[in-house]
Predict the 3D structure of the following.
Amino acid sequence: MKLLARYNRVTLITTIVVMLVTGVIYYFAIHLILINDVDKDLEVEENEIFEYARQNNSLPQVFESNDQQISFFDATPGSVQRHYLDTLYKTEPGSGRRRHHHHEHYESGRGLITYVTAGGKYHGVLIVKSTVETEDLVKIIFIITIAVILLLLLTLFVTNRLLLTRLWQPFHNLLKELRLFNVADTKEIPELDTTIDEFKELNQAVVSMSSRVKSDYKDLKTFTENASHELLTPIAVINSKLDTLLQTDNFSQQQSKLLNDLYTAVSKLTRLNQSLLLLVKIENHLVEGNVTINLRAVIDELIIQFEEIFLDKQLKVSCDLKDKEVTANPYLIDVLLNNLLSNAIRHNNTGGEIKIRLTIEQLSIKNTGENEAIQKDHLFKRFQKSSSSEGSGLGLTISREICENLGFSLVYDFADNYHIFTVKFNS
Amino acid sequence: MKILIIEDERGLRESIEEYFTEAGNVCETASGFAEAISKVNMYRYDCILLDITLPGGTGIDILKNIKENNYPDGVLILSAKNSLDDRLEGLDLGADDYLVKPFHLSELRARVMAIIRRKTFSGNNLLIFNEITIDLLAKSIKINNQLVRLTRKEYALLLYFIANKGKVVSKNAIAEHLWGDGIDMANNFDFIYSHIKNLRKKLMEAGSHDYIQAAYGMGYKFTDQ
């Protein structure tokens, strides 16, 4: 749920409840006040009657005034309790302010029953006032209140929307920056242009976190690079000493075997080390020197290069190559194609097949091998290799890094018993 | 030929010196920047093997010094730096070749011989080894004036052997020379064996002596002794 929706929901519900409660209280309060008012009018009228009865010792003449009716009735002394009551007010047809009424009808009214003694006789008095106007007033007030509530809700809704969107703008900006954050990038997260303290704090935390992560990452990179460099010289010494040792006297079969194993191990170590160095380079985007390369020519060249190895493993290689030019560092392209083709050979069966297809959109290299798809999740991770693999375990990681560096994408698929690696040029 | 080895790592320097020292060759060494600069400025060499990272300075400065003074010496850069970094800089500054550590001594030797051949080219593009004559420009081979057809790799292999004549060259070195990094998928080098068998057969059928000897199952030796 979006913050805005949540916030709207809470504020709107609260507003509505509060408004309704106050509306009801308001309604009753006004009603009470107005009824009170009417009651006072009734009392004034009652006093006038008392006054009249006292002075004239007779009942006043009953006449109909606007919205007020007075009637007297005989009653046994002491039987009338003075009290107010809600009653009905009967209008005469064509009388009063509602001249359009052609027959009598009832309106809500407020009455006072009291008693008066005039001329020695005990009389009950009923004074009724119409409360229609009061009711109308209450209604109007109520409608205005509702209208105000609705207007307030609408205003709240709109301002919330505008305000929140604007208020949260720095947050969204920061979020965008975080999404674009790349630990290998040199780009820093910029300072937010905001006056809100919370966002300032968040921004500061993010900026300091990102620079810390970056510097840690850089340290790690530098360490890898330095370690690999430092390893190169001792490996070079071992290699040259082996070459020198080879020039000395005759070797027994056992010694030759040992030497051979040493050679193999050292060349593996060399390749591993160089792969690590290359990986650091690519990840740091330190590889420059782009030129236009026709992939077809490179692949043709590579196939000639690998000819003996294809023969040795009795691999059937078929190519369907179109001209495709890319702008890239030739060394990286070499490494990429070399890695992919090496994999296709290394993980192939003797007598298997390799199909290479190059189009404008993509390059796909299919090969036979284990009749089972490789787990995709770990395929491109470092040092992930099948138990039978003799490679460094960095080949595919490097290939993917190169592809990402060039804006390509590298995907793996398994179909019809072929393992397919596809480089998509427009990823 | 006269070679200067500028390398601070003693083990490597000695190995190279030992590998290059033979009748007719003079090898000198320098282990630091100052020593290297003074030797470079005092004597002329056919080829200088130049390490980039040296105590007291960088090989790049030595290379600049060589080029500023227009010394004709061939320069081969040896570097532990990744090939991508210094290669362009080194070659831009006029180095003849570039070799990344670690390397096989036989590879180094083949590169040095190629530089020296280019330097002392002087209109003569023929490399002659007894009855074998190699035209380096046309990349063609004659034995007793008889043209021998070799594949590209057989030709490269023959040049490699001649550059390392009298030395045992390991199968690893051969494989890396001919197939580059792509070789790491093949742990048995049977296809090298068939390659060498073919080359040997072609040379001998054209009337050459049998110069290629297998060495203890580890490599091969090209020798006329």
Summary: The CA atoms of residues 73 and 102 of chain B lie 24 Å apart.
